């Protein structure tokens, strides 16, 4: 059906508020973009701009995805139906409504539902699926995206986001749902026992598990911590955990309310400098030792450390390296470092962590981008009994220590990071001092991510053009360094990797560059990792590689 007929169908059958929004549209290109296709599952499920249309996040696209998911669950048999599905949501526009619609559609299909009473972080949803022995889970969130976005993530029975072997099946069920405008959806008050509201009892079990990851919960705590949840779900769990542990926490009050407009933050993504504007202002006023901030669904943790009178923001690769070394050192001291220890990170994560792990006799396994692949690896090794998970992380500020969650967990990361800061302060060091010691031991690594944002249909074509140019005309050298090999994950050499639109250039000096379209945002992402004997040498290599690939991308988009 072409976009005009889809538009007319929605105007005829959708609810009055949706009709009003559609009839107010005057730009034909906007109408085409809203109805040119149906939303597709990416690396993080559904994620897109809010609004009316088949290519937007709204109750109808949520109901369609849920009906497809319900048909998938029912196909697994009565046990799956009775085990049910846990549902949580964040602070975004429409999140509660989407969660209730998800619950209503599942209940209308006779599937048991466990719905959180109010907003909760993504990692707690993952925990709840495992703790309640559900068949699966749904998290309504757009993670760190701007306010106009929302999303829908699905989890399997292990608490891990669905990986391709499941999403490939699920997509067929979703695509088979022909009429998203007339899907049965029970109001909560009519669902009876099919929908069970959950809350504090699950929270307490989760907090207990988080406390259990620490090495020294009673360590002397002479540090001050500024914390911002960026208006999201991290406010309650992180403040609760740090208060219980006895830390002096100074919340950024302006950013604690769960505001869907994100009124008091320039950007809710902890990877950005803008997210730290207010936290660092408060940290400077209080001479705090740490400023930490989480994204709206509290699965990412950003960190800034007081060092020599100022503040240094760490990248995800740097935080991951410092955290990894602390965990390995403390476990070795205590005799709890397993002989088959396993670090799991991604093909776009810095090689520094791999070197640290190897020095402790710990094996590193790589996955595609997306924490679901890390969670899936954990389960695989647990099932086979051939590796003991110690730590998982990715460059985009995601970390996991205790595998009672199978997604990145900023609550775990926050309490571990604060323990690390207290531990090293008692020894006269900051976390940044520790990072510099790591560089002295393993070499100076410089890593960065550059993303080209390209909205709409034209943007998608430009992203495709960049990837096609890189495949049609493979580079022999980049930034003055010869290319040793090119890994194309559309045709992976390792059967453990599912097909993915990713290219990775391995250079002769050990540097690498990875390029991929984002699965959840209209961006083409370029990841760089270089190693030098000094910071200056590493920076020079990095600059040369960036110039090379940015020029290539500009040329491809102009063709």
From TrEMBL:
GO MF annotation terms: magnesium ion binding; phosphoglucomutase activity; phosphopentomutase activity
InterPro entries: A-D-PHexomutase_a/b/a-I, A-D-PHexomutase_a/b/a-I/II/III, A-D-PHexomutase_a/b/a-II, A-D-PHexomutase_a/b/a-III, A-D-PHexomutase_C, A-D-PHexomutase_C_sf, A-D-PHexomutase_CS, Alpha-D-phosphohexomutase_SF
Enzyme class: isomerase
UniProt cofactor(s): Mg(2+)
Tree of life domain: Bacteria
Keyword annotations of the record: Isomerase, Magnesium, Metal-binding, Phosphoprotein
Cell cycle recorded as keyword: no
UniProt name for this protein: Phosphoglucomutase
One Pfam family, short name: PGM_PMM_IV
Protein species of origin: Candidatus Avimonoglobus intestinipullorum
